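Record 1 of the preview.
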Amino acid sequence: MMCNELSNPLYSSIIARKLAIVHHLNVPINKEPTWLPETMEQWLKQIRKIPLNMEQMSTIEQELIRFDYENEIIKLFRILNECESPVVFSNHFIERMFDYSNPEWPHYFAYMDRFPAIDNDKRLFIREYLKQCSELNHNTLGPLDNEEHLFKEIDLFALASHLLWTLWSINNARTSKISFGYLVRII
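->
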């Protein structure tokens, strides 16, 4: 599937329904939300080991390495904990903005206008997701299974996704052998 196909209403509906099924699977795995904070912590530790070499680093890279991510992560998880989010699917909407088929540097195209506001795209996705959840729960939904809560979740977890991929980019700019515009400013 191509990134631009994620906004196709038919595909988006199918993805929403399949995601609801995955979220309702009863499988013997750890369901505690530890991956995100542990991964951010791990990548941040790696960033803090990068020596600041002013002659070999761009200004943006120096600023990114010096940034106070520790406090941002604390603030982020304070906000996310208040959201009481049982599921996360904001990355579905973020991935719409990027096309990784560019053979030229930086090896992706960024389309910032593809992230939907509270509009028909998000509403369709959420409604299909909730419809499938209701069917899986014998036509019953929990107190957090409503459109407004999921709109809020999408927007809040978009912040988490942006911070996660910022940390990933800083690390990969220094460690990866793959030619990719990890630190290219897209705004």
